[in-house]
Amino acid sequence: MSTTTVTPAATRPSVKASAARARVIARTELRLIARSKATLISATAFPLLFAAFVIAQAETARNAAVGMICMVLAFFALFAIYLTATTTLVTRRQDLFLKRLRSGETSDGAILAGVMAAPLVLFLAQVAVVAGVLVALDIPAPSRPWWILVAVVGLVASSLTAATATAALTPNASAAQISTMPFITVVLGSLIAGPLVESRYLDLTPGGAVVTLVRAAYDLELAGSPWFATAGLALWTWVGVDLTRRYFRWEPRH
Questions:
Q1: Residue, of 89 and 23, whose pLDDT is higher
Q2: Hey, is 205 helix, strand or coil?
Q3: How far apart are CA 153 and CA 162, in angstroms?
Q4: Which of 61, 69, 215, 244 could be stapled to 164 by a disulfide with Cβ–Cβ 3.0 to 4.6 Å?
Q5: Is the pLDDT of residue 224 over 70?
Q6: What pLDDT does residue 233 have?
Q7: Looking at the predicted structure, is the pLDDT value of residue 116 above 90?
Q8: Which pTM does this prediction carry?
Q9: String of DSSP letters for 135-196
């Protein structure tokens, strides 16, 4: 972070107070997203389109559950979390909303948690919609579902920290259309290459790691290892955290 304010322990907000303030910020962000037609459409259109696609291709989907789940998780994480969170952080920083929040008693962690909670809620709602459709269509359930849970947690964590890191390097909302492309390209490129290229090193990419973890959940043959894939997602999360700590600014970048 750019500047760090040391708060005396006696006046430091409690965890309960910080959580309450983060919830207030999250509700505010959800209302702002709901008022923005462009953001609302981009954040909700994909689950509806995917649900319609699954229904239309029901028989094919039963034979391609792994591919469908990988696509759903990666696309939703990119569009609902990564793009929305990056744009929101850059916009709120440019209009001094973050600076005003920081001038009060709200901690830095509560501010970021509140802003990031809204995209996370959208992601979970989207996944719930599509999961309901998959269950209704009697798509085969995974034999080891905990690996899908690991994929979701890792993908969410890496997308959130990638968003804060990208926002740290992005001067304005218009520039975010370009600065977000490298991470999107890496995720989608490795997602496509995952089933085609038999290399364990693809597990070190977000898309490749998700493919390996979902295949492990369905007990399919693997080129890599679910533990290596978990380490890959953890590595991307750590890189995002490190870049955020080094370069994030609370005031507008010029």
A1: 89
A2: coil
A3: 14
A4: 244
A5: yes
A6: 95
A7: no
A8: 0.82
A9: HHTTPPPPSSTHHHHHHHHHHHHHHHHHHHHHHHH--SHHHHHHHTHHHHHHHHHHHHHTTT
* Residue 46, pLDDT above cutoff 90: no
Cβ(54)–Cβ(61) under 8 Å? yes
Q: What is the pLDDT, as a whole number, of residue 157?
A: 95
Single-letter residue type at 68: M
Rg (CA), the chain: 19
Residues 171 and 254 sit within 8 Å (Cβ to Cβ): yes
Residue-wise DSSP of the chain: --------TTTSPPHHHHHHHHHHHHHHHHHHHHH-HHHHHHHHHHHHHHHHHHHHTHHHHHTTHHHHHHHHHHHHIIIIIIIHHHHHHHHHHHTTHHHHHHTTT--HHHHHHHHHHHHHHHHHHHHHHHHHHHHHTTPPPPSSTHHHHHHHHHHHHHHHHHHHHHHHH--SHHHHHHHTHHHHHHHHHHHHHTTT---GGGGGSHHHHHHHHHHHHTT---SS-HHHHHHHHHHHHHHHHHHHHHH--SS---
The dihedral through the CA atoms of 46, 47, 48, 54 has a sign that is positive
Q: What is the mean pLDDT of residues 16-34?
A: 75
State the pLDDT at residue 126. Answer: 81
**251/231: higher pLDDT:** 231
Amino acid at 159: S
Reading the block at residue 57, the tokens are 């291709």
Give residue-wise pLDDT tens across range 95-108: 888 888 888 777 88
Nearest Cα to 76, choosing from 177, 159, 140? 159
